[in-house]
Amino acid sequence: MDRQFPSLHRLRRTAWIAFLVAPALIIMVTFVVVPIISALAFSLYDWRGLARGAFVGLENFRQVLFQEPFAGWTRNAFKHNVIVFVTIMVVQNATGFLLAYALFKEPFGYKFHRVSVFLPVVLSTVIVGFLWKLFLHPLFGLVNQVLVGVGLESLALPWLGDSRTALWALIFANAWHFVGFPTLIYLAGMQRISQDHIDAARLEGAGEWNMIRYVIWPLVAPSTTIIFVLTFIGSFNWFELPFIMAGLDGSPFGSTDVLGLYFYRTAFGNQSAGVQDFGKGSALAVLIFLVIVTVAALWTIYLRKREVEL
Amino acid sequence: MRKARLLAAATVAGSVIATTPGIAADLTFWSWRQEDKSVYEELIADFQKTNPDTNITFEAFEPQNYQTILSTALAGGTGPDIIHVRAYGNLETVAAPGYLRPLGDDVDLTGFSPLAIAAETMREDGQLYAVPFASQTLVIYYNADIFAENNLTPPETWDEFLATSQSLLDAGVTPLANGTQTAWQNEILVGALVPSFYGAAFEEDLVAGTATFEDERFVGALGKLLEITDYLPRGFTGIDYPSAQQLFLSGRAAMFAGGSWEIANFRNQNPDLNFDIMPSPAPAAGEPRLVSTFFDGGYAVNAASENAEAALEFLRFTTTTDFGNKLAAKLSNISAVPGVKFEDPLLAKIAEFNQTSASYLMLVHFRYEEPSGSVLLQQGVQRMMAGEATPEEVGKEVTEGIATYHAPFQQ
Amino acid sequence: MTTATTLPTGAEARGAAPIKLQPFLLQVLLIANSVLMLYPILVMVFSAFKDTGQIYDSPFSVPDFTNLVNFGKIITQTNFVTYLVNSFIVTGSAILLILTFGSMAAYGLARYQFRGNTILFLFFLSGLMVPLKLAIIPLFIQFKNLGILDTRLSLILLYTAMGLPSTIFIMTGFIRTLPQELEDAARIDGASELRIMTSIMLPLTRPAMIIAAIHNAVPTWNDFFFPLVFIQTDARKTLPQGLTTFMGEFNTDWGALFAGLTLSALPIVVVYIVLSRQFIAGMTSGALK
Q1: φ, ψ of residue A137 in degrees (nearest 5)
Q2: pLDDT at B22
Q3: Which of A70, A131, A240, B154 is deepest in the core (most CB within 10 A)?
Q4: Which C residues 173-202 touch A at CB under 8 Å?
């Protein structure tokens, strides 16, 4: 690089760059890198409450992966994370795509609709969780009052109390909260398609469906990759919404349990468990971490490739 | 600060406690009893009459997160001087890593019930870590006005209980306010409604290691709960704990299975509510009506506290009848202090119920290791009440879960 | 690219509807969606003006908007105002630090070639995907060692760490697009590197800074998990955490609950409605490039 510069200059240049980068680097190392590595180390120890005991190798992992009933709980929670991810990926994002397309056509009032679809996204999960918990109340909640009001009394279920509907109710609340996100990402993707492209397709006589299928979709598909990763991270990190709406136990009987709740409950205990196990908790954290990082790493590689292409 | 240490040293060296001219210290006192804050501040003021130089700041946290907040603070080497700790397994979580100061001979607990002392003792080292503060009893609350309006008297046997519930239902009143969405409420249902069915002898056998939760007495008791599903609110699987309280408080439901800690709360939230309490129904006329009891927690001293002597002084204060009487009168707590008078008619009733009691089984005996008996039972009963498991399956599941660490169940 | 279709459109003018049914359906879809998005929020606001009995018995009615009892309860009987101030302090300080350190690092990475540049960039980028929640206990011990446990500073530093990756990502991309000529000209004039950065280059990055600020301000403002564990003193709680406290206290008073939710949602909703374009750009950035 700057080999022809005198060494004093080089030194000053190095100092200058270090000055620029150091604060961010120090903060990231202190509050991200060190804690994450410590969490990995913690999973290899036996813990009594939060006091570290003997080194036990992979024993904590063995328990959460292979010893009943912990292994069953892990499988159950993992299964729910997968269901959440797949459902959100399909339903939330397909709805988002459809809404984006509707907005893209710029019908009457589209500016208003664009603002309203994104409004819930800015709300805190705590607000959304409490709001929907009140709305889904079996007796006094808005949802059942509406159903009874229109004569669908048989559909007025205890949504959060029935093991067949509880997880879906949470997913619905999540979709209500976040559907605006993929919508606007797809919309931005569509708006970058050149008008010539669309006009050309129209001249060829493409109908609405073919327009979506052969013109719009291929051009906004790259956004889906990113939405995939964000949805994936979000789904495997899911904690606040089930915590507020279903409680730490993943009520009823584990039908809304996800890895985030299970991790928190194991590490910090709850009233009924009476026990805090930071070893098993850390092991769960590491497992969740590995799942997420694998996918995230693939994304980074992908991004890097794209950077090179640009 | 230094003066405090010197004085503390002097006290430990054997000076007479009563004449200690107060210890200059600023203490913090953590608790999960948010709603009791003003009374505790009053009690602290009483304490300061004899210890004018000791300041105590009472801070209360959300119950659900209290254990987390406390353990993380203690693990980080901080935390309060005086700690309101829970009992049994939760106590061990904070006592086992050495966060609490063993009380030894520093506090005199003569006259306290052995069960109370056991609740705050760690099984491993046999040391007492906290002054027990109150016991709790699970009862059935009923709305006396609704009963009167419908010409009903409190039921005594299970069959009467069912008949009463049916009459209420026919009259358009929800008989029982409870729901099963909040997991721990399911364990409450067992402890409040059917202890007379499994009985105190079952508990003895359980402790002796000769019975498991597959025992027909316990399974039969669980089965009784299935007979009340019609009398719970519509959509009870979606009714959480606050909703259940609300149904009872607003007079929309006639009965509520719950703990004695509800008394103060109910009176507070609806001063006009005319309610009374009864123990669980007897299986047949003339048989004993049991209540489930447990000790709620106690006051402990942080092992890392720099003001241990001042904190211990406060703990000694909590063993006095003055303290106990006030706790009973103002917070409707069944104080663990011996010789406390329960002026309040409901508390007096509970004290009487407690003469015929069994332990709140899982909390007292099986909340020490994972998977805890409570977690297993709560999930099992929740599933059973939703119609997705039989009492036998629940008993089996609970037994198998506990058997992973409890030798007597491993056959 | 396109295949033959059975439905010839014949539309010439841009935006003209090829088939009558579809715009209608799309319009219905949008209206239905807006109702679904807004109606719950409207009910929340309406319910805040009712007492619990009214909410149960006439959930859909328009309330008496002069009945401010519930709001009075929230303002006077809870620490709502304190929580609100804390949220402002924490979010404001974190954003300030994120923008300062983030743009410094981004500038270093974007404008200078040095050994390790790419690795460093990737390092920061990987921070985008780290689920930091999982490191909650080590973080706790870290804060304890630094003596900042149970302080707003602990949250500010943590949110700064969490916001830096996206900020560096957004800002690096933007700074790279700035023309080299500006910088060269200033250098020939003898301007110092610091001066080039602060007076010439950074002022040009304002659009990216706004995007980065909003991208991080919203999740920071809304975060619930970290204060849940780190902040114990009530006077230092932020709004979402404080909200759970008074949701617990008023659990049988639905009117007060809805008032609490309404007041908590109010600040960000108002700012969003005023700045919706920037919000949308900010929050979806990072997913767009």
Answers
A1: -55, 130
A2: 56
A3: A131
A4: 193-194
Q: How many CB atoms lie within 10 A of CB A4?
A: 7
B386 touches chain A (CB under 8 A): yes
R_g of chain B computed on alpha carbons: 22
Q: Where do the domains of chain C lie?
A: 82-284
Cα R_g (chain C), whole angstroms: 25
CB contact under 8 A, A31 and C139: yes
Is the preceding peptide bond at A252 cis, omega within 30 degrees of 0? yes
Average confidence (pLDDT) per 10 residues, chain B, 411 residues: 43 43 81 86 94 91 78 80 92 89 92 91 92 94 96 96 96 95 94 95 93 95 96 93 90 94 87 95 94 94 93 95 92 90 92 92 89 92 95 95 91 73
Residue A272 has pLDDT above 50, yes or no: yes
Q: Which of A276, A280, A284 to mutate to test the interface with B (most CBs of B within 10 A)?
A: A276
Q: Are the Cβ atoms of C144 and B78 closer than 8 angstroms?
A: yes
CATH number of A66-309: 1.10.3720.10
CB contact under 8 A, B62 and C245: yes
pLDDT, one tens digit per residue, over C206-218 is 888 988 898 899 8
- What are the residue ranges of helices labelled H in A179-239? 180-191, 195-203, 208-210, 217-236
Query: Residue C97 pLDDT > 90, yes or no?
Result: yes
- Contact partners for chain B, using 3 or more CB pairs closer than 8 A, are A, C
Instruction: Find the closest chain C residue to B266 by CA distance.
Output: C252
Q: How far is C183 from chain B (nearest CA, A)?
A: 49
With beta carbons less than 8 A apart as the criterion, state whether A274 and B402 touch. no
Q: Assign A19 a pLDDT band (cuts: 50, 70, 90).
A: very high
- Angle separating helix axes B373-385 and B183-193, nearest 10 degrees: 90
* Chain C contact set for A39 (CB, 8 A): 134-135, 137-138
Test the C interface: residue of A28, A98, A143, A284 with most C CBs within 10 Å:
A28
**Chain A interface, mutation test: which of C5, C21, C30, most A Cβ atoms within 10 Å?**
C30
Outline where DSSP puts E strands in B61-198: 82-86, 131-143, 174-176
Q: How confident is the model at residue A221 (pLDDT cuts 50, 70, 90)?
A: confident
Residues 6+ apart with CB under 8 A from C2: A201, A204, A205, A206, A210, A211, A214, A215
Copy the structure tokens of residue B288: 């004993």
Homologous superfamily of domain range C82-284 = MetI-like (1.10.3720.10)
CATH of range B137-293+353-409; options 3.40.50.410, 3.40.190.10, 3.30.70.100, 1.10.10.10: 3.40.190.10
**Fold exhibited by the domain B2-134+295-349:** D-Maltodextrin-Binding Protein; domain 2 (3.40.190)
Q: Which of C1, C104, C224 sits opposite A23 (nearest CB)?
A: C104
Contact with chain C for residue A291, Cβ under 8 A: no
**Closest chain B CA to residue A169:** B238
**What's the confidence (pLDDT) of residue B293?**
94
Judged by a CB distance cut-off of 8 A, whether residue A246 touches chain C is no
Report the C-alpha gap between B134 and B31 in whole angstroms.
Answer: 14
Task: For residue A210, give the nearest of C5, C135, C141 by CB distance.
Answer: C5
Query: Model confidence over A39-81: pLDDT tens digits?
Result: 889 999 988 766 778 899 899 999 999 988 899 999 999 999 9
Give the pLDDT band (50/70/90) at residue A302.
confident
ipTM for this prediction: 0.83
The pLDDT of residue B34: 79
A262/C83 Cα distance (integer angstroms) = 29
Judge: A252–B181 Cβ closer than 8 Å, yes or no: yes
- Interface contact flag, C2 A299, Cβ < 8 Å: no
